[in-house]
Design a protein that fits this description.
mainly beta; Lipocalin; 2 domains; 8-stranded antiparallel β-barrel; 8-stranded antiparallel beta sheet; 3 helices; 7% helix
């Protein structure tokens, strides 16, 4: 699997050298999701060639021509239905059966495909496509979360939203009713290159969010590799 190193690029400032070499399809992939296999397993593509699924982590690389090499428990070659607006892919896998997956159905798909005035703001660029994020929610799934295009915030089971607070460079997360009983709003404060704190509106307790890094603690190594993979 692939991890961020301590010396990795700074999301607070850097334009991410990885992006200079990525093709248009690759850029679309880390801005969209979740992708869902037929058994319901979710897959996310993150910046810097990092992938994360319900089976664990791996790597991906855009090959050009609408194809991507994805390595989870096995190496897969994905062929997408479109480069400009991908919504599904078929795959072949060495030593396994071919299959397919698609963007999860739902209202969020229209947001992923729309123009977004906040998409180039500094606060959005710190989190858009980065990941996988671990968020220490008290009552929600903790990992992986992905900040996607259109203000879509997607988790292992949940969908929420994020936005730039008007007149500031700060982000705000909205958890809709149904995901939590009455819906909740959180302010987001970046505390480092790959970390932030959330504070619920009207509250003071802090919830931490971060991208696990190999130098933090080896207790996180189980996030790195895929297990129970069914491809």
């Amino acid at each position: 699997g692939q991890w961020y190193d301590r010396t990795g690029a700074d999301t607070m400032r850097d334009k991410k050298p990885f992006e200079r070499h990525i093709d248009p399809l690759g850029r679309k992939l880390f801005q969209s999701g979740p992708w869902v296999f037929k058994d319901g397993t979710r897959l996310y593509f993150y910046r810097r060639g990092i992938a994360y699924s319900g089976w664990g982590g791996g790597t991906w690389e855009a090959n050009g021509g609408g194809t991507v090499r994805l390595t989870l428990c096995k190496e897969m070659v994905l062929t997408f239905d479109s480069v400009a607006a991908p919504t599904s892919f078929s795959y072949t896998v060495s030593g396994g059966s071919p299959g397919s997956a698609a963007l999860m159905a739902g209202e969020h798909r229209s947001l992923l495909a729309s123009s977004w005035s906040q998409g180039e703001s500094g606060s959005v660029l710190r989190v858009l496509g980065e990941g996988p994020w671990h968020i220490d929610w008290p009552h929600l799934s903790k990992q992986p979360w992905a900040f996607l295009w259109g203000g879509v915030l997607a988790g292992p089971k949940e969908l929420a939203s994020y936005e730039v607070v008007e007149g500031s460079d700060q982000l705000r997360i909205r958890i809709p009713p149904g995901v939590v009983t009455k819906g909740t709003v959180y302010s987001v404060t970046m505390t480092g290159c790959y970390s932030f704190e959330l504070v619920e509106e009207g509250g003071s307790a802090k919830i931490k969010g971060w991208i696990p890094m190999k130098h933090v603690s080896m207790e996180y190594t189980h996030y790195r590799d895929s297990w129970g993979c069914k491809v």
